[in-house]
Write a structure and sequence with these properties.
- By secondary structure, this protein is an all-beta fold.
- It is built from one helix and 28 strands.
- The protein is elongated, with a radius of gyration of 39 Å.
- Strands 18, 19, 21, 22, 24, 26 and 28 form a seven-stranded antiparallel sheet that branches.
């Protein structure tokens, strides 16, 4: 229990009551708070009237000077780490337990290395320049036109990241799904091709690129596609030819969400992607290129579907054929 000091309650750990007046205390001593201050249990003189942290600064000739241990330093060019003075790196202080300095550049010692005068990223036991290379599963790969990609699901061809390619040269028919109401259906064969020696095409005899024009028919060729994540649009291209009959015997192209069942039936029109409404009227090979928006396809799975349909009132040979299907980002 303490007596009030001139009727006033006070903190006896920070003040004494002397002659009815409160006097600041520091440990067991009192001091004038106009000229001094208390840090811990030690009284210090203010530095040009300013309170400061004595563990971080000295007051020299009325000016605060940074201290590190018992030494002083210029904080414009150096910094204190523990009790050791170190030179800044490119004007920047850093945590020496996690970072180091490489020719004026601070780098993370757990993910980067200083090789010569350059900061290189680390990938497993290798170092690499992140401007032109990237790390994937502890292996260094060269960027593809400045972009990183997934080497397990994509390939860099030229300057494009290729997420799917099909030229039918070494492809088993079972790797594609074919749905048909017959007598015309999709096969992979050698009767026609844009390059190489094979293509996928409509046939009515499992060999030639011909169709029966007197029987109405629907036939879909389907492949599951994973669109790897991308911030930029994709490009689908393929070689095609199809004579047929305008508005009656023709090919169309779709990308159908993999949550939707596919069969020989025509998919919903919202899934049609080709810039040309119907592919027909061409008996020589030509290339089609279609832009696919990343906002729709990025990171999603779709069925790429090529559809042939014909009525039963005539038409011109040959029916649809496709080759060199390519999707890039």
């Amino acid at each position: 229990i303490y007596d009030k000091c001139n009727g006033e309650v006070y903190n006896p750990t920070t003040h004494n009551c002397t002659c009815g007046a409160l006097v600041p205390r520091c440990g067991s001593s009192t001091y004038d708070e106009d000229t001094h201050f208390c840090s811990g249990t030690t009284i210090y003189e203010k530095c040009s009237g300013e309170i400061y942290n004595p563990s971080e600064y000295y007051c020299t000739d009325g000016a605060l000077v940074p201290r590190c241990g018992n030494a002083t330093y210029d904080e414009d060019t150096h910094f204190c780490s523990g009790t050791t003075i170190r030179e800044k790196c490119g004007g920047e202080a850093y945590n020496i337990s996690t970072h180091n300095c490489c020719s004026g550049v601070v780098y993370n010692t757990s993910t980067q290395s200083c090789v010569g005068n350059a900061v290189l990223n680390r990938c497993g036991t290798y170092s690499y320049d992140p401007a032109t290379y990237f790390c994937f599963n502890s292996t260094v790969h060269e960027k593809c036109n400045g972009k990183e990609y997934n080497p397990e699901e994509e390939e860099c061809v030229g300057n494009a990241i290729q997420i799917f390619f099909e030229d039918f040269e070494e492809t088993a028919t079972t790797l594609w799904s074919s749905y048909s109401t017959h007598p015309n259906y999709w096969i992979i064969g050698t009767d026609t091709y844009s390059t190489g020696s094979k293509a996928a095409y409509i046939s009515d005899n499992n060999s030639s690129n011909n169709y029966t024009t007197t029987s109405a028919n629907e036939a879909n060729l389907v492949k599951h596609i994973l669109f790897t994540a991308s911030a930029t649009n994709y490009t689908l291209s393929f070689d095609w030819k199809a004579n047929g009959e305008s508005n009656h015997d023709y090919m169309t192209v779709y990308l159908v969400p993999n949550t939707v069942s596919v069969s020989s039936m025509e998919p919903a029109s919202e899934y049609r992607i080709a810039s040309t409404t119907n592919f027909s009227g061409r008996d020589t090979w030509t290339k089609e290129t279609i832009t696919l928006p990343a906002a729709t396809y990025s990171g999603e799975r779709f069925f790429l579907l090529f559809r042939w349909q014909n009525n039963n009132t005539g038409g011109a040979q040959p029916p649809a054929a496709i080759d060199n299907i390519l999707i890039t980002r």
